[in-house]
Amino acid sequence: MKKIFYVVAYDVKSDKKRKKISELLEEWGVRVNFSVFECEIPRKALSPLKKKIEALINPKSDSVLYYPLCLNCRSQSERCGMTAFRSFEQKLIVV
User: Domain residue spans in the chain?
Assistant: First the structure.
């Protein structure tokens, strides 16, 4: 199944809804900033994910942005500051 790399950024006022959105995105990627995730999402899963997120937000006060990145663009990304982010291959294990 082909996966597409997305940067997903959101600005959601409700703490409860923001938490639910982050939990949905954690299934597909890693948090790289407070409200920003890098995700690898299969094509077939993108539309259902968007629908779940859209059902949570208030379109008058909240926003969610999806930025697809090609492999070449992704390889040229740069980070400044904290670099202790997990990669997709790393799994977070809490004991």
Answer: 3-70
* Residue 48 to residue 94: CA distance in whole angstroms: 29
The Cα–Cα gap between 75 and 69 comes to: 9
- Cβ-contact 42, 1 below 8 angstroms: yes
Residue 73 scores a pLDDT above 60: yes
Mean pLDDT over 43-63 rounds to: 96
Q: Which CATH class is domain 3-70?
A: alpha beta
H helix or E strand, kind and range, residue 33: strand 29-33
Amino acid residing at 15: D
* pTM of the shown model: 0.81
- If you write DSSP's letter for every residue of 35-89 in order, what string do you get? TEEEEEEEHHHHHHHHHHHHHHS-TTT-EEEEEEE-HHHHHT----S---PPPSS
